[in-house]
Amino acid sequence: MERKMEENTVSDVDAGREAGGEDALVGNVNKLIVSPPGYSGTPRKGHLVFDACFESGNLGRVDYISEFEFDLFIRPDTCNPRFRVWFNFTVENVRETQRVIFNVVNFSKTKSLYRDGMSPVVKSTSRPKWQRLPAKNVYYYRCPDHRRNYVMSFAFCFDREDDVYQFAYCYPYTYSRLQHYLASLERRNLPYLQREQLGLSVQQRRLDLLTITNSDHMSAEREKKLVFLTARVHPGESPASFVCQGVIDFLVSQHPVAQILRDHVIFKIVPMLNPDGVYLGNYRCSLMGFDLNRHWQDPSPWAHPTLHAVKQLIVQMNQDPRVSLEFYIDVHAHSTMLNGFMYGNVFEEEERVQRQAVFPRLLCQNAPDFSFSNTSFNRDVVKAGTGRRFLGGLLDDTSYCYTLEVSFYSYMTAGSTAPVPYTEETYMKLGRNVARTFLDYYKLNNFIKDNRPTPIQSSGVMSQTGNGVGRDTADREKEKSVGH
Description:
Layout lengths: L8 E4 L19 E4 L13 E3 L9 E6 L2 E5 L14 E5 L6 E6 L16 E4 L2 E6 L5 E5 L7 E8 L7 E4 L6 H13 L5 E8 L5 E7 L11 E8 L7 H13 L4 H9 E6 L4 H6 L24 H14 L4 E12 L5 E5 L5 H17 L9 E2 L9 H8 L5 E8 L2 E2 L8 E2 L2 H18 L31 H8 L4
Parallel strand pairs: 5-7, 15-16, 15-17, 17-20, 18-19
Antiparallel strand pairs: 1-2, 2-3, 3-6, 4-5, 6-12, 7-11, 8-9, 8-12, 10-11, 13-14, 14-16, 18-20, 21-22
Helix pairs in contact: 2-8, 3-8, 6-8
């Protein structure tokens, strides 16, 4: 690619162009017209207009290299220049059949699934469904022109002049989308679903808490088993929201398994722990630049209000003798590995180690995209402030705390030779399978009519080889006999 280094000629119709190097980027481009060097006058078709001034948007700067090539700079997380991964922007004023190469030049990570076939997602006005770009049009390499940073280049051909095109790192799931979804659930007036505002973020966005259970079946004498699930503590990890919605959709459905689970378990779900970061288009941090998943030990009510509220609730429930808080699962997305998998904690007692492995083993049977071989149990010092590690030390030995990770890109199933890219739907399907697995874990299958639970869209028990641990029926029965 020939790179012309002339002075850029760009104009911002609203706010003026931001000066300075990439480290100085603080805001998103706003209807930024990128014209050839020396050009003045009314922009022509093909003089691209870039915009990221919208919810979850991120693009900090655009450099004109040639009429076919543009360098794009990710805006760092607010108040934290270390993280530059998430991007989400629109392009308009295109010329029909215009071919371009976009170079995203300032990633803060070196390892990336872009090396393994991952590609950005795109949609346009006339084709509003997100789809991945062809992997053959995407290149990831270390570039000498940009401090030897890693660069992701992708080629694209615009085909409709009147369309606005939108590109993103992965399928966006915004704060507003969550609010519309939760409002639609509320309107159904389901007797077993309660939505409440647990608190507010620094910028006064809602911290929502859902409680899903059939209270009619919960006697005052019987200890209540409780599962607590959180997602989007890292705002750029949008697949976590699709997984979380899959869990919720299944638990509020009329599926026979969901009905049984509501009768025996209380589910508490916080779908978006970092609403400000999600809204602002950050990758890892909150408005004030904090990685909230390193502050569980001592969250501040003013700097980390959402974390503080959730921790208070969990501590309070843990002290309630009528409640058995048995699971904490925090949902994330992973930028370098395939499949869904889990992280767990390290214990001294062998029996507890074995019991902790039961849920991921069962999930491996229910979800063809979940990998038990990728699942690991660790006590890394750097992870000490995470929800999994902190709550693992706080809760008693009948409780298990996991991080559920899902790939930003794809999964390998047993016997497959090529990775299968995730879609919004397959992320949600993993969530449905997570919910379904609690039936097996709590040995509630006998409550299903004829003891034959209805399958969840072909998510039957699969023997996992390579991707997980291959097991026959006898092995599975042995696993289910492990005490919970």
